[in-house]
């Protein structure tokens, strides 16, 4: 029941937080990351309203850019694509920086994609296919992550 309640809250709370928004949120602070020597510039969503809005209403992402979500606490997560037209791939990341899972996300699909691994501290959204194109797979570590748990 706990996991179901968590997924339900992930579905309901973001709808309430961004229901009035009809445009992309302003660019967030950038964190420089690397995976297997590949550099990434990731906007960093570490507050609830930033995580809720994510990449909604964005029309494009520059090369090697994405969005890093810092979870308020480590645990199972689920992401959806409400109001998001960009095809994305999401990496669910453990507190130690290891990529645990990769999932392709469908534009505008509001069905949450839950993590299978229960200890997720970060999520990194990149353009769909970016991880495959750069030969990056689960088990590899993300360098440059901030401390888990956000601010």
Task: Walk me through what this model shows.
Mean pLDDT is 89; it is low at 1-9 and 15-20. The protein has helices at residues 2-18, 48-53, 130-133, and strands spanning 30-35, 38-45, 65-75, 78-79, 88-93, 99-105, 113-114, 120-127, 142-143. β2 (38-45), α2 (48-53) and β3 (65-75) form a beta-alpha-beta unit. It has a single domain (2-143), classed as Sandwich (Jelly Rolls), CATH 2.60.120. A 7-stranded mixed β-sheet has the order 6-5-8-3-2-1-9. The chain has a two-stranded antiparallel ribbon with strand order 4-7. It contains 3 helices and 9 strands. With 151 residues, it is of the alpha+beta class. The protein starts with a helix and ends in an 8-residue tail after the last strand. The longest helix is centred in the N-terminal third of the chain and has 17 residues, at 2-18. The chain is globular, with a radius of gyration of 14 Å.
Keywords:
151 residues; alpha+beta; Jelly Rolls; 7-stranded mixed β-sheet; two-stranded antiparallel ribbon; 3 helices; 18% helix; disordered N terminus
Query: What series of H and E elements makes up the topology?
Result: HEEHEEEEEEHE
Main β sheet profile: 7 strands, mixed
Shape: globular
The CATH architecture category equals Sandwich
Question: At the first level of CATH, what is the class?
Answer: Mainly Beta
Total domain count: 1
The stretches of 5 or more residues where confidence is low (pLDDT under 50) are 1-9, 15-20
CATH topology: Jelly Rolls
Distance between the termini: 29 Å
Give the strand order of the largest sheet, numbering strands 1, 2, ... along the chain.
Answer: 6-5-8-3-2-1-9
> What is the residue-averaged pLDDT?
89
Which oligomerization state do the chains in this entry correspond to?
single chain
Instruction: Briefly note the structural class of the backbone.
Output: alpha+beta
Tally of extended strands? 9
In CATH, the homologous superfamily goes by the name Protein of unknown function DUF192
Radius of gyration: 14 Å
Helix content: 10-25%
